[in-house]
Amino acid sequence: MSSSSAAASTSFVAEANGSMSTIVVAAKPTGHHVLKIDGYYRTKAMFAAGKSIHSCRFQVGDHIWRIKYYPNGNDSGKEKPDYISLMLELDFAGRKPDATAVKAHLVFSLLDQDGEPVPSRTYSGKVQSFPGPSGSSSWGLPKFIYHDELENSENLKDDRFAVRCDVTVIKGIELRVEPASLAVPESDLHCHLRRLLSTGDGADITLKAGGKTFTAHRCVLAARSPVFKAALYGDMRPAAGRCIDVDDIDAGAFRALLHFVYTDTLPEMTSQDVPAMARQLIAAADKYQVERLKLVCEDKLSRCVDMWECGE
């Protein structure tokens, strides 16, 4: 399964002979309607359970719709109604009896005083057919909101509140045939930088750690570490040709640090080497402010602990 950029809800992709065909269930026509209730308590007192008030008609996707507002719910048999129902109805006037069903995706929302949907009272349903399996021309939320909840909220003010219904009509199936996209290989920048480190081509700085010397490139170190940047390009930068001593880290750990700086990965190491190496690298990551190196090493350490616990 894959999704199409043309607002498709479902698609299936098949490739053959250098081309690609995509079967798309298009979801194009979209619109919404806002229904404002001015006189909530009056309508609640005037309309019994099962009785509704209709919004004006509105058009989405060549079809006419209207919202049905039930101040005391849509269940006419309920003796003590305590909730509001909302339904969306498709107007079948002028439609042929054998016309195909209309499929639509609906979202009902209670609006706040700024006219924005209230997240806790926004409901997105499945794609519905009009008429439905029982022949009904409407679909909605029998228990959209309880009276007490609305009355105790800030969304009812001066006896007024508003709801919004978003409608997306699902059109028919489209078949698109497009040239197959070129296969773009994954980035191998890290391979080139690793080779640059190992060959020393163009290196312009020498560092010494654990009695061993290493060549590197100032610009790479500075790009990866703000501490290296300040040391190599700041007012106290070393003179050209001078070897910089790096304390508090052995040669193996410093080699791993450089490897990470150039490739964003750690070199291969045995499980026995991980604890000591990771601890040194975590300290180096703190010192040189290479945050991702610290997280990678902490993850490796936690995996080692899990492995040892499983082995006990």
From TrEMBL:
Record protein name field: BTB domain-containing protein
What are the residue boundaries of the MATH domain, all occurrences included? 30-167
The record's listing under SMART domains reads:
BTB, MATH
| Positions of the BTB domain | 203-270
Pathway(s) the chain acts in: Protein modification; protein ubiquitination
One record GO biological process: protein ubiquitination
- PANTHER family registered for this protein in UniProt: BTB/POZ AND MATH DOMAIN-CONTAINING PROTEIN 1, OS07G0655300 PROTEIN
Q: Which organism is it from?
A: Oryza meyeriana var. granulata
